[in-house]
Amino acid sequence: MFRKVYNLCIFLQKSGQVDELIELLQSKIKHMEENILVNGNPIKIARSKGKKIQITMLQDYSQLSGNLAWAYLQQDCYQVAKETYRWVCNILFLKLALE
């Protein structure tokens, strides 16, 4: 499913439908947050160059959040984009600190 969402994000970016992209990313992030709380599974299977790999939900979450911040920049919502980027950086910093 991640690949479908990623491909849809690319399509929406290229077609200039930033509002729809923001809605899609927000719903995906909300779904991930609910899924982590319910299942508690920190790892999922994804594909990279045809091979199955394991990625953490934190990696996926930070990538989607970064894409969301980029979409806010396209709408000239600089303050929201700045807060979103800072949120992503804090998440990644905490992850590195815990390792």
Mean pLDDT metric:
78
Low-confidence stretches: none
Cα radius of gyration in angstroms: 14 Å
Q: What is the number of strand segments?
A: 2
Question: Beta-strand percentage?
Answer: 5-15%
What general outline do the C-alpha atoms trace? globular
Q: Give the helix tally.
A: 4
Largest sheet: 2 strands, antiparallel
- Structural class assignment: alpha+beta
Order of helices and strands: HHEEHH
Relative helix content: over 70%
The termini sit apart by 28 Å
The total number of structural domains is 1
Lateral strand order in the biggest sheet: 1-2
Subcellular location: Nucleus
Main location: nucleus
GO cellular component, one term: nucleus
Keywords: Coiled coil, Nucleus, Repeat, TPR repeat
List the helices and strands and how they pair.
Blueprint: H1 2-15, H2 18-39, E1 43-48, E2 51-56, H3 57-74, H4 78-98
Antiparallel strand pairs: 1-2
Structure, described:
The protein has 99 residues and is an alpha+beta fold. The protein has one domain (2-98). 76% of the residues lie in helices and 12% in strands. It contains four helices and two strands; from the N terminus they run ααββαα. A two-stranded antiparallel sheet has the order 1-2. A hairpin with a 2-residue loop joins strand 1 and strand 2. The chain is globular, with a radius of gyration of 14 Å. The chain starts with a helix and ends with a helix. The relative contact order is 0.12.
Explain briefly what this protein structure is.
Helices cover 76% and strands 12% of the residues. It has four helices and two strands, in the order H-H-E-E-H-H.
